[in-house]
Amino acid sequence: MLRRLPLTLGDRIDPAKNTPVYMQIIAAIVRDIERGRLTPGTYLPSSRELAEDLGVNRKTVVLAYEELIAQGWLTSAGTRGTLVSSTFPDPVSKVSRPVAVAGIDGQPLYRVLPAPARPLALPDGRGIKLDEGTPDGRLFPADVLANAYRSAVRDAARSNQLQYRDPLGAPALRESLAEMLRSQRGLAVTPAQICITRGSQNGIFLTAQALLRPGDHVIVEALTYEPAVAAFRALGARVTAVPLDAQGIDVEAVEAACRRQRIRALFLTPHHQFPTTVALRPERRLRLLELARQFGFAIIEDDYDHEFHFASQPLLPMAVYAPEHVVYVGSLSKLLLPALRIGYVVAPEAVTRTLAHAVSLTDGMGNTITENATAALVSSGELRRHARKARQVYATRRLAFAQKLRDGLGQRARFDLPDGGLAFWLRFPGRDMDAIEARAQAMGLRFAASRSYMASEDAPRGLRVGFASLNGAEADAAVAGLRVALDAGQA
Questions:
Q1: Which superfamily does 128-134+385-488 belong to?
Q2: Is 411 a residue whose pLDDT tops 70?
């Protein structure tokens, strides 16, 4: 007897789709089991009957049935036919897909975090992307990267390193980074004091997770890196914003905050302040370290683009002078490619062991192949050679972009030529920033909104515009778009 399915399966099967027909049949049957249209114990048509109904080859249906039987959705009853497994509740849809339901005592079962002040990455889409200081990925030689990966795969296979390993990161990369940090940044660090992370943001979050408990107070600058603030708040911390000026964070305001309440951590980007590009003056650095010792808080030092300093030798990290009070977060994303996702945290061994535990809970371990390939680029000197060449390109682009801004925007925009970093901080005195941003975005410019940098409502507003990733034509188009947005407001 012909067993008709209680569904219109034929309406869902389209041989013109890229998905193989047998997989379409599988998906359609599974959907109807989940929705209760096919209940446990229901017999399905024979493979021949269903093939005739659908107008497909019988082998296609046989393949779909066999896969569903192997997965446990269907059961074979021999000569009697194929039926829906009797182990499913009736209907499956009541339990198979979790929904936002109440838990114990009527409380929500799932915790939904509040939306951040802005998306944590610039959106994709058409138009000119004005990033916040990203390197130009076109500059790194692809063949060098490919060779490093090939060597890493080959060497790891030979030495049986394609296994689970220390969540601190690949030993070769930690050793290479320790040598680089000792020789180039003055950090007296060992591999055991380094934890490899998935970029600097992951490093910031893991560090915050190790330091903070709900209710702890964290100080940030009034203009700051919003993803870090979002991470602190997600962990239940209370964020206090203090002012900054042309010499960096207001140290007196930090001290005043410490006297009002127990501060657990201070988040800083002292080398090239994000977003303003200001370098924190040496005397303020030393005063902050004194306050850290006096009030017992940790400093999270985010040194996200140390190498790209153009006016003079870069200042040594704060971690050099007080490694017991400073957790140093760095990244190779600006040196190599953001897509590689290589960051690191330098801290006392007790802290890195805590970080390793957190990594083991969330990631298990990093990417051995990528980390070993990166280690080879560091130890061979390839990374340093690329940094030297890239710095020359960016130095030229920095001056050229400054001139384009002067020529294109004139007195309508103000900026200081940054001593380092890969972006400019633009201010538009006397202008309606909301209107400028709306017009610029309407014309296809994509950038982080000025409010996204503001940790306090009274912070000054501006736009952070990266120059390093733009070639000459792209920079011209970006400045032209900004000029039109400004001119439109005067019409």
A1: Aspartate Aminotransferase, domain 1 (3.90.1150.10)
A2: yes
